[in-house]
Write a structure and sequence with these properties.
249 residues, mainly alpha, PqqC
Amino acid sequence: MNILSPDELAAALRRIGAERYHNLHPFHKRLHSGQCSIDEVRAWALNRYCYQRIIPFKDAAVLARMDDVELRRVWRQRIVDHDGEIGDAPEGGLRRWLALTDGLGLDRAYVMSLEGALPAVRFACDAYVNFVSQKTLLEAIASSLTELFSPQIISERVSGMLQHYDFVDESVLRYFGHRLDQAPRDAEFALDYVTTHARTPETQRAALQALEFKCGMLWCQLDAIEHVYVNGNPFPGAWRPGLGMAARS
């Protein structure tokens, strides 16, 4: 592999998203086009909570490896965005995701317990935390660059779900509106870091492979959800329709 210029490296990273990002997954095409049942949407939201839950874990793991105080000041905003502030400050992303599962009629305590989550989804999330903890800081930051592509999937998701599903509204989907501002900001910073610090064929290859890993981690979660809830291959103990629903008032 020849050394790429910063612009060439950025283009190579973007090509990975064009080929591997999970907006291309068949389940997401079903979700965004109104082909999912409400129980399939519930299964997706419940399992996706596993990923939402570990985002502060992985960002804390990345933060702990940063020697530069300025770098830490920037990165810690990701944790604040997701966990929110103390007291009556604006809610964070994690609570906004729970607003989605609340709106779908799932019991919040059940969702947070992870009891009904698919093993493959949980394993994938654990693998991501281990990745950013064990790989180089450059690779850990490069793996976050799926945020380059998230505005596209968020726009497709919100417009598609509001159009096709009468059981969601803008309030229930408010997590995604906030990410339209946060993800581009975070991606711009991470992309600048990667293209600045990946200066050898080895480090550039590692950065590209890190992004490929992250795309694969997101994709395999949907593989598991589709296998169980669309193709009808239930895992013992996994969530099923009627289980873990909130009590009606």
